Amino acid sequence: MQSFDDPPARHAVGATEGTPASQMFRSRTQRQTQAHLRATLDSLTDGFLTLDRQWRITYANPAAEAILGMATDTLVGQMMWDAFPGAEHGQFGQHYREAMAHARVVRFEAEYPPLSMWFRVSAFPSPEGIAISFTDITAARETRERLLVDNADLERRVRERTEDLRRMNEELAYFTSAVTNDLRAPLAHVDGFSRALSERLPPGADAQLHHYAARVRAGVARMEGLLDALLQLSHIGRSELSPRNVDLSAIARDTVDVLWSRQPGRPAQVEVQEGLRAWGDARLLRTMLEHLVATAWKSSACRQPARIAIGQRPYGAFYVQDNGPGLAEARVAELFAPSRRLDGTQDADGIGIAVAIARRVVERHGGRIWAESVPGAGTTFCFRLP
Description:
Number of domains: 3
Radius of gyration: 42 Å
Strand order of the largest sheet: 2-1-5-4-3
Largest sheet: 5 strands, antiparallel
Number of strands: 12
Strand content: 15-25%
């Protein structure tokens, strides 16, 4: 930084060094430079002080007066350590001495307790001593401290709520497991007694009795399937993901083959697009797709023939489509309720929980699943994976 007493950088044209004209020009230029420099420093919004090598304040701009609450006349001429007691042995004194001794620009933030203020300071070496530029950052520091406290409190509450949620999930999983296991024993008894009853009916017994026994056993089988689905739903959120490249086309074909093996005479047209691949946990994605395809298989049972399509749209979403009865747009959200059963379907128990399992798998992967349905035209389940 040029001092107020620095020599001018140019000479009067046509004048020789040392002539009266040259000296007058230099004096006038020096005064102009000093006036311009002072006007510039006076206009700064940051505080600005200059100190000589004896630590005496030689200049203070109006911003310094406003920030420090000290009159310029009081500051100028004082020793730095007298004007700011305690600063000599703290960070201020350390950094100022470094800037002066090593002719190095030093920037730092520090608190000055007597004024209860924080400052952002830059100390610049100059031929006369150092120049100090500073600004009040007290409000910013207080805001930062409040944010740190708030963030720490938020993190604490998040940890507590996460732990509460983990504990609740564990308790729910334990409860689900206990309930399903407790229900299996009486279901097994019902199944065994109904089978024994059916076997002990005489050959000429009423056909309606055989029908009743068969319906009881079918109900037991469906109930066992629902219990298995409940266990699946409770375990999905706790299992660790092992992502890999998964062939969804192969899973869809395997699922359809199993369904056809259970109902070999059912008229159904199934289309599986080739090359469907996704990145995710193979076991969970298989569970998800099996439930969606089985849902389409059940919901289209009333159609002759049933039509099911598994594919991928041009913009990346996978879909499982059927030509079942469908739903009005206002009721599409009901498809994801675990207790939901599609209207007009036969033997459609478990559709709601199957769709809930599929949604849980997709969300576990960070994806999104939704349904599109038109009354009389079928339902399409769409899902997108990261």
